[in-house]
Specification:
mainly alpha, 167 residues
Length: 167
Amino acid sequence: MNAMKPQLINFNWTSVVMLLMLLMLMYILYKLLYKPFFHIADERRRKVEEDISSAERARKEAEDLRAQMEDELREARKTAEEIVSRARKEAEEIVNEAKDRAKEEAGRIIESAKKQAEVEKGKVLEEVRSKAGELAVALAMKILSGVLDEKAKREYLIRMIDKELKK
């Protein structure tokens, strides 16, 4: 009955040789395939990590540059606003100076015109006085000559004065 019992593990030299061949195949595959594969995978992983860190540095630099540019832009806007403000203020000062000069010039012109009008008025009054004197002499001559009656004298005097004033 012992001869008929099936054995779970048969031990023979074929199994040992197959085990040795399996171990040799694993060693050869490890040296030729797995080791270069893992080396390439490690290189790839290292390169990816370097690329990620490089990209992170570039992103950080870009953010720093953006912040710097925003600061410069704010500063430029502030400077531009100051320049515009100064220009407006200077323009107002120039306009005010021009107004003041124009008022002064207008005052001088008005004063000059008043003086000239006074001079002309004086000349006209002098001329009227002169003509009135001449008329008075002419009237006196006619009165003395007895040619005019009282009413005619007045009318003649009024016409002469009107005539002289219209000139």
